[in-house]
Design goal:
The complex is a heterodimer of chains A (127) and B (110).
Chain A (H helix, E strand, L loop, with lengths): L2 E5 L2 E3 L5 E8 L7 E7 L5 E7 L6 E3 L7 E6 L4 E6 L8 E12 L2 E12 L3 E5 L2
Parallel strand pairs in A: 2-11
Antiparallel strand pairs in A: 1-3, 3-8, 4-5, 4-9, 5-6, 7-8, 9-10, 9-11
Chain B lengths: L8 E4 L5 E6 L11 E5 L6 E4 L13 E6 L2 E6 L9 E9 L2 E5 L3 E5 L1
Parallel strand pairs in B: 1-9
Antiparallel strand pairs in B: 2-6, 3-4, 3-7, 5-6, 7-8, 7-9
Classes of the chains: A mainly beta (127), B mainly beta (110).
């Protein structure tokens, strides 16, 4: 079954660190760019970071740059988000999302759409 | 504050149609294709429109999208109670390079 499963969320103190993982199933992970997106309580979706299929291109939001690091291991079909210097405002559900789309001829990677999402992992930041 | 601007909420009667607007700038919608997502609380978001106006497999043709200039629109016809969700537009911003979303529009089917 084609799916993404996040893990690694939990409760951490301000200033602390956490590493999120996203495991991919049912598709060729190495062919697709990947993203991290978060949703804080009562707020909308916020894009956090992008990594191309090869890992060569990396982009991140101003709100997390210098504190969060996206990485991937194509051999293990996994995406990661290393979060450090966590702040109260980083508390959210964190989703991994595949950068791609599918049509009648197959599935392709893109930066402009996210066609497969996980159910998210919850990160709480509190003293 | 989101880079893309959406109305916070829209509503329409069951069976009717509704349009959700998404406004951006020359560096995002003006340059890159738009996607739309349907999100129910506590679940994974679902891509319903990509490349401005294309539907992924399994998405009914009641959902359609368009883009003009620096704005995009999602239209849903034949509204059903099951369509009640929050809808987000999204795209890539070329300056600075980043993904961007709208603030989300909550749809109520009366």
């Amino acid at each position: 079954q084609v799916q993404l499963v996040e893990s690694g969320g939990g409760l951490v103190k301000p200033g602390g660190s956490l590493r999120l993982s996203c495991s991919a199933y049912g598709f060729t992970f190495s062919e697709f760019a990947m993203n991290w997106v978060r949703q804080s309580p009562g707020k909308g979706l916020e894009w956090i970071a992008y990594m191309s299929s090869s890992g060569r291109d990396i982009y991140s939001a101003d709100s997390v740059r210098g504190r969060f690091t996206i990485s991937r291991d194509n051999a293990r079909r996994s995406l990661f988000l290393r979060m450090s210097s966590l702040r109260v405002e980083d508390a959210a559900f964190y989703f991994c999302a595949r950068g791609g789309f599918c049509n009648g001829t197959g599935c392709y990677t893109t930066r402009s759409a996210m066609d497969l999402w996980g159910h998210g992992t919850k990160v709480s930041v509190s003293s | 504050q989101s880079v893309l601007t959406q109305p916070p909420s829209v509503s329409a009667a069951s069976g009717q149609k509704v349009a959700v607007s998404c406004s951006g700038s020359t560096s995002n919608i003006g340059r890159n294709s738009v996607s739309w997502y349907q999100h129910f609380p506590g679940t994974a978001a679902k891509l319903i429109i990509f490349d401005d106006d294309k539907r992924p497999p399994g998405i009914p043709d009641r959902f359609s999208g368009s883009r003009s200039g620096t704005s995009a629109t999602l239209e849903i016809t034949g509204l059903q109670t099951g369509d009640e969700a929050t809808y987000y537009c999204g795209t890539w911003d070329s300056s600075p390079s980043s993904g961007v979303f709208g603030g989300g529009t909550s749809l109520t089917v009366l």
